[in-house]
């Protein structure tokens, strides 16, 4: 009888083992837990939750780990939560990624969009200004107009536009513009503020602008592009070193591989990218240098 029970127990274990999720072996060797994903709040929160659902499923299936997406209330909040170990994989802008990795030794930039090594910002203006696109920085044409950035911690919506304002005028935004500089809080909010005329000019990342125009959410005739910045490195996926303790040594390399190998368009849509490529911390050294120069980092 004991032999019969022993056989039944072994059979049950074998069945359970055969039902392990695909890739679960990749997560062995650690303490386990939930891999928590978040992103900088560069657009409406309701849109982010929907966008990142496919990524959760993809990572769970490929790595055999439990995942969840957790909204961050602001750019700064995403960095604080990463520092506290509350989130483990974050879609950051260039500046917030540098801030997060500096706060957490061992944190790694592991992937970026195919366009991110050569990113850019648009300066856009309300059509009532009469401004049109030029290869030259608009300078005197915008200095007396109302101007808005996106978030204070945005790379493409504040840091790099500030850098190019200084480079072209010799003055920081607060000194260059005769009216107080505004902050819309997000790229889509900048686009709508300029379109409506509540801000006459604004700086926005080009991907958001192009997507909003394509989706019919922004009228380019009411908010035309007046200047395009030179290229710079921007968005990236940064991973917390705690994942190695949770899922075993080498997990960050496995995570990087499944991200870079991803061909699922629904997953890639979370980042508004056609492809993901490898990234490393050194790719964003220029962002850190600029941030220190303009006083946004020590």
Q: What's the rounded overall pLDDT mean?
A: 91
The strand line-up of the biggest sheet is 2-1-3-10-4-11
The oligomeric state is single chain
SSE pattern: HEHHEHEHEEEHHEHEHEEHHHEH
Within the CATH hierarchy, at the fold level, what is the topology of the largest domain?
D-Maltodextrin-Binding Protein, domain 2
CATH architecture of the largest domain: 3-Layer(aba) Sandwich
The level-1 CATH class of the largest domain: Alpha Beta
Entry keywords:
alpha/beta, 6-stranded mixed sheet, 13 helices, 2 domains, 5-stranded mixed sheet, single chain, 11 strands, 298 residues, D-Maltodextrin-Binding Protein, domain 2, globular
Describe the structure.
- The protein has 298 residues and is an alpha/beta fold.
- It folds into two domains: 23-117 and 234-293, Periplasmic binding protein-like II (D-Maltodextrin-Binding Protein, domain 2); 120-228, Periplasmic binding protein-like II (D-Maltodextrin-Binding Protein, domain 2).
- It has 13 helices and eleven strands.
- It has helices spanning 2-18, 45-51, 53-63, 75-83, 94-103, 155-169, 173-176, 187-196, 206-214, 242-247, 251-260, 265-268, 285-293, and strands at residues 34-39, 66-69, 89-92, 108-113, 121-125, 147-149, 182-183, 201-205, 225-228, 236-239, 276-278.
- The strands form two sheets. The protein has a six-stranded mixed sheet, sandwiched between helices. The protein has a five-stranded mixed sheet with strand order 7-6-8-5-9.
- α4 runs parallel beside α5 (94-103) and α5 (94-103) packs across α13.
- The chain is globular, with a radius of gyration of 22 Å.
- Mean pLDDT is 91; it is low at 1-27.
């Amino acid at each position: 009888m004991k032999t019969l029970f022993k056989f039944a127990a072994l059979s049950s274990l074998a069945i359970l083992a055969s039902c392990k999720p695909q890739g679960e072996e990749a997560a062995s060797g650690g303490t386990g837990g939930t891999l928590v994903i978040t992103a900088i709040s560069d657009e409406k929160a309701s849109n982010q939750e929907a966008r990142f659902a496919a990524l959760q499923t993809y990572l769970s299936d490929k790595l055999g780990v439990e995942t969840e997406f957790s909204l961050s209330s602001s750019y700064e909040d995403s960095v604080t939560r990463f520092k506290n170990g509350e989130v483990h994989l974050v879609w950051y802008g260039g500046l917030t990624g540098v801030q997060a990795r500096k706060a957490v030794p061992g944190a790694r930039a592991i992937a970026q969009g195919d366009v991110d090594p050569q990113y850019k910002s648009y300066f856009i203006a309300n059509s009532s200004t009469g401004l049109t696109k030029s290869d030259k920085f608009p300078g005197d044409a915008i200095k007396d107009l109302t101007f808005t950035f996106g978030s204070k911690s945005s790379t493409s919506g504040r840091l790099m536009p500030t850098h190019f304002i200084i480079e072209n005028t010799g003055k920081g935004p607060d000194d260059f513009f005769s009216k107080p500089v505004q902050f819309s809080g997000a790229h889509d909010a900048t686009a709508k503020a300029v379109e409506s005329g509540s801000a006459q000019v604004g700086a926005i990342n080009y991907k958001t602008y192009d997507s909003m125009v394509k989706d019919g959410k922004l009228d380019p005739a009411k908010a035309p592009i007046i200047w395009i910045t030179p290229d710079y490195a921007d968005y990236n996926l940064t991973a917390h070193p705690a994942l190695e303790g949770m899922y075993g040594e080498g997990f960050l390399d496995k995570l990087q591989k499944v991200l870079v190998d991803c061909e699922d368009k629904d997953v890639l849509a979370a980042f508004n990218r056609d492809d993901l490529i490898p990234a490393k911390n050194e790719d964003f050294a220029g962002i850190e240098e600029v941030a220190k120069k303009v006083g946004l980092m020590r």
